[in-house]
């Protein structure tokens, strides 16, 4: 099954968190073809709250925006 590419407005889950509670957020900005900014709403870890751009491959689409 092919994974969907995250885009602005999509609900996403952090793909690399197999040992922790799932981390969810909304894609708020796209920098280029590979980088997105995600507003994480269920984790207070500074790692997710720093406002950095992420490689799209670190996130999987849970629900697409219209």
For the structure shown, list the relevant keywords.
mainly beta
As laid out across the biggest beta sheet, the strand order is 4-3-2-1-5
Overall geometric form? globular
Order of helices and strands: EEEHEE
Low-confidence stretches: none
Assign a percent range to the helix content: under 10%
Q: Note the main sheet.
A: 5 strands, antiparallel
Strand % is 35-45%
What value does the Rg take, in angstroms?
11 Å
Walk me through what this model shows.
With 66 residues, this protein is mainly beta. It is 6% helix and 38% strand. The protein has 1 helix and 5 strands. It has one helix at 46-49, and strands spanning 11-14, 24-30, 35-40, 53-55, 59-63. It has a 5-stranded antiparallel sheet with strand order 4-3-2-1-5, with no helix packed on it. The longest helix has 4 residues, at 46-49. 15% of the residues are buried. The model has no long low-confidence stretch (mean pLDDT 87).
Compile the SSE list and pairings.
Blueprint (H helix, E strand, L loop, with lengths): L10 E4 L9 E7 L4 E6 L5 H4 L3 E3 L3 E5 L3
Antiparallel strand pairs: 1-2, 1-5, 2-3, 3-4
